[in-house]
User: Which sequence fits this backbone?
């Protein structure tokens, strides 16, 4: 008689084994992998057990299984673990942009929940800010989809973040060319732009009001890699009536914290 087959329960998103043991093991393994990924220099089993709130024997058993499939590797000291070759190989198949999106998205979602405003992730692309992810606001009227669009750097707050890192020669070449304007931002001189870039250096974030669009406020903060180079920016925006002056500092701090949290994971 053939062995008893496991029963499964289906819903729209998930398939569960009815005894849930396999699902629980997978969840625990991913929790352990996440903890190890936060410690690139290596972390011991006892510390992992404490971090994930599991018995040490359970953690060791799962580590041994993951080591067998090269999901983790044990360092020469025989006591600490780090991410293994198979996980690194999977990560390497992702584009840099997709990796950034994956790292940033939980933080973008948190920022959207905190502010209830639209949140954007962009990267510099030549003379443009290129948008790669977006979380819509919780309000009824939704913004346009900006993912995949390019906007001249000087027209948007995150673009000014990137411009603030340019040397004088490159910035001079940029401002000597024709500076595109918007109906709300009809007059922009190199001097006005430099004033805004100086403010970014002083404040640590970029703020714009009635520049890209009449009645629109945006706040952006930088995202830096481990070498301190600004590689992306996070932005919130919304109508000016939801951004009273006294709220600016609070929102700016949340955006800065989000940029720093993402930076710490790059």
Assistant:
């Amino acid at each position: 008689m053939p062995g008893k087959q496991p029963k499964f329960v289906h819903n729209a998103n998930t398939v569960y084994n009815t005894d849930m043991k396999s699902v629980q093991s997978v969840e625990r393994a991913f929790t352990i992998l996440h903890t190890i990924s936060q410690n690139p220099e290596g972390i011991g089993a006892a510390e992992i057990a404490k971090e994930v709130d599991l018995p040490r024997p359970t953690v060791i058993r799962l580590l041994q299984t993951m080591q067998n499939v090269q999901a983790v590797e044990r360092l020469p000291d025989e006591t600490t673990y780090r991410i293994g070759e198979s996980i690194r190989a999977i990560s390497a198949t992702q584009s840099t942009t997709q990796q950034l999106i994956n790292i940033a998205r939980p933080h973008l979602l948190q920022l959207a929940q905190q502010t209830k405003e639209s949140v954007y992730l962009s990267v510099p692309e030549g003379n443009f800010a290129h948008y790669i992810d977006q979380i819509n606001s919780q309000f009824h009227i939704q913004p346009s989809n900006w993912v995949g669009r390019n906007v001249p750097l000087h027209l948007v707050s995150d673009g000014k973040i990137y411009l603030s890192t340019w040397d004088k020669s490159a910035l001079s070449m940029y401002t000597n060319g024709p500076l595109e304007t918007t109906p709300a931002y009809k007059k922009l001189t190199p001097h006005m732009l430099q004033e805004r870039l100086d403010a970014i250096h002083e404040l640590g974030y970029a703020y714009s009001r009635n520049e890209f669009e009449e009645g629109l406020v945006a706040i952006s903060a930088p995202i830096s890699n481990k070498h301190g180079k600004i590689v992306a920016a996070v932005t919130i925006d919304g109508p000016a009536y939801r951004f009273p002056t006294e709220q600016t500092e609070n929102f700016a701090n949340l955006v800065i914290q989000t940029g720093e949290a993402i930076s710490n994971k790059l």
About this structure: The chain has nine helices and eleven strands. The first strand starts at residue 8 and ends at 10. The domain at 96-263 is CATH 3.30.450.40 (Beta-Lactamase). The longest helix spans residues 96-115.
